[in-house]
TrEMBL record:
GO cellular component: cytosol
Swiss-Prot/TrEMBL catalytic activity: holo-[ACP] + malonyl-CoA = malonyl-[ACP] + CoA
Active site (record annotation): 101, 211
Family classification: Belongs to the fabD family.
Protein name: Malonyl CoA-acyl carrier protein transacylase
Name of a matching Pfam family: Acyl_transf_1
Phylogenetic lineage: Bacteria, Pseudomonadati, Pseudomonadota, Gammaproteobacteria, Moraxellales
Gene Ontology BP annotations: fatty acid biosynthetic process
Organism superkingdom: Bacteria
A molecular-function term among this protein's GO annotations: [acyl-carrier-protein] S-malonyltransferase activity
Keywords: Acyltransferase, Transferase
EC number(s) recorded for this UniProt protein: 2.3.1.39
Species the sequence originates in: Acinetobacter wanghuae
């Protein structure tokens, strides 16, 4: 089937696929599906050969799963394995794709923009560069709940004025849910200010402060790796994190992937765009259900469906195929 035919099919649907980022990993992920679908293990074998280490072993044993240079290729591979099973079972092509942080790379692979082998090598490097950019214990991230976006930005500015270091809004995940990132003491200052202003604050168990200016050194290193990697425009529109829009050309796509390391993830705008474009069904293609839970908050989304177990895969297929008129 040609890229043009795929696009025509995709445009006819009211389904979007979203791909999760770091934090969705789980020891033993996809084990039950792998017993039934050989393509799961085959996808992990293909990706493992590209990076030179056993991604399935990491996923199942948990050894190294919390190290970002390993977490990222494992999660990407898990998402693509699920995507391949979805297609194998006759799942529809979505109208749009999007991925949260690391998940943007999964979306690009699924949409034919990057090969799986190139993508796992890229995100392995991405993880290394991110880890090396900020020494362990210097950076931090925290979820701020119950305050609007402007208030969180104001608190970040207030915390930054008070001392050296920086803290910024890193992920706009949903209304009343913003993740901040930066120097650990500045993040802690924002957490205290949030509580003083009637919000809640939860420290996140991460090893690097993603999507903030502390990641600029990593972005500079990563840009050269991206420049040497073959990328083409996706066959299905992929909304990019920094703009909540699909790139018009490959150079814009590359630039946005570089900027994604140190700029905010615009997930709230991404979900709003999907809703405005008539998307009614959102399928989360990766371990866990973090993104589908966020999507359920939108008033015009009929269903938000994870795929990461046999029963969830079956439920999502039935719901979407009925909704798209593929089965009665």
């Amino acid at each position: 089937m040609s890229a043009q035919q795929l696009e025509q099919i995709a445009q006819a649907t009211k389904t979007a696929f979203v791909f999760p980022g770091q934090g969705s990993q789980k020891v033993g992920m996809l084990a039950d599906l792998a017993e039934e679908f050989s393509s799961i293990r085959a996808t992990f074998a293909e990706a493992s050969e590209a990076v030179g280490f056993d991604l399935w072993h990491i996923a199942q044993s948990g050894e190294g799963l919390d190290q970002t240079e390993f977490t990222q290729p494992v999660l990407l591979t898990a998402s693509i394995a699920l995507w391949r099973v979805w297609l194998e079972l006759g799942g529809v092509k979505p109208k749009y794709m999007a991925g949260h942080s690391l998940g943007e790379y999964s979306a690009l692979v699924a949409a034919g923009s990057l090969s799986l082998g190139d993508a796992v090598k890229l995100v392995n490097l991405r993880g290394k560069f991110m880890q090396d950019a900020v020494p362990q214990g210097v950076g931090a991230m925290a979820a701020i709940l119950g305050l609007d976006d402007d208030k969180v930005i104001e608190l970040c500015a207030q915390a930054t004025e008070a001392a050296e270091g920086s803290v910024e809004a890193a992920n706009y995940n949903a209304k009343g849910q913003v993740v901040v990132a930066g120097n650990k003491d500045r993040v802690e200052a924002v957490m205290a200010l949030a509580k003083e202003n009637g919000g809640k604050a939860i420290a996140l168990p991460v090893s690097v402060p993603s999507h903030c200016s502390l990641m600029k050194p990593a972005a500079e290193q990563f840009a050269s790796a991206l420049a040497q990697t073959a990328i083409e425009l996706p066959h299905v529109a992929v909304l990019q994190n920094v703009s909540a829009e699909a790139a018009a050309d490959v150079n814009t796509l590359r630039d946005a992937l570089t900027a994604q390391l140190y700029q905010s993830v615009q997930w709230t705008k991404t979900l709003q765009f999907l809703q405005d474009e008539g998307v009614e069904y959102i399928v989360e293609c990766g371990p866990g259900n973090v993104l589908s839970n966020l999507a359920k908050r939108l008033p015009n989304i009929e269903k938000a469906l994870p795929l990461d177990t046999k029963s969830r895969m079956e439920d999502a297929l039935n719901v979407v195929l009925v909704a798209e008129g593929k089965i009665a």
